[in-house]
Amino acid sequence: EDYVKRWEGPPDSGPLSGAAKNLAQTYQAVWEQSEFIALEKSHNRACQIHAPEGKVIYGRDQLIEFLTGYTKSFPKGSFRVHHWIVNEESSKNNRIAIRWSFSAEHTGLGSFGEPTGAPVVIMAMTHAEMQEGLVVREYHAIDEISLWMQISSYSMS
């Protein structure tokens, strides 16, 4: 939680708006309530996602499977956007970059092993390429090393 306190208040880039706001609201629904149906309104059904560990994910179904590993491990928490930008250039797809965090406790069984109760902060960035209002390509940079360290150091204490 100390990581997140540095960025209390609205994002340092100003209040969310437009496509960035829509994407952030989608991920807030996914991370905080496991509302994966929100991805139907934000992601092309054939989207390509680049995830941690060099994983390449194709389509919403695989994206849901990937995110479920996190949401099962950390079922209750708080999603926050710290910075965002939209890049709009003529003759190119719009691109969105969001730096965000998710504060939670490791209380569920998912991709991160047996529940430990460890308080964690997931620090991440998402870069999305949009076409006709939907994500067609997305990159997730999630600091899993820090996440594993938070879990293991809590387990050892």
From TrEMBL:
Transmembrane segments: none annotated. It holds the Pfam family SnoaL. Gene3D superfamilies: 3.10.450.50. InterPro entries: Cyclase_SnoaL-like, NTF2-like_dom_sf. It comes from the Bacteria. One of its GO terms (biological process) is polyketide metabolic process. PANTHER family: ESTER CYCLASE, POLYKETIDE CYCLASE SNOAL-LIKE DOMAIN. This is Polyketide cyclase. It comes from SAR324 cluster bacterium.
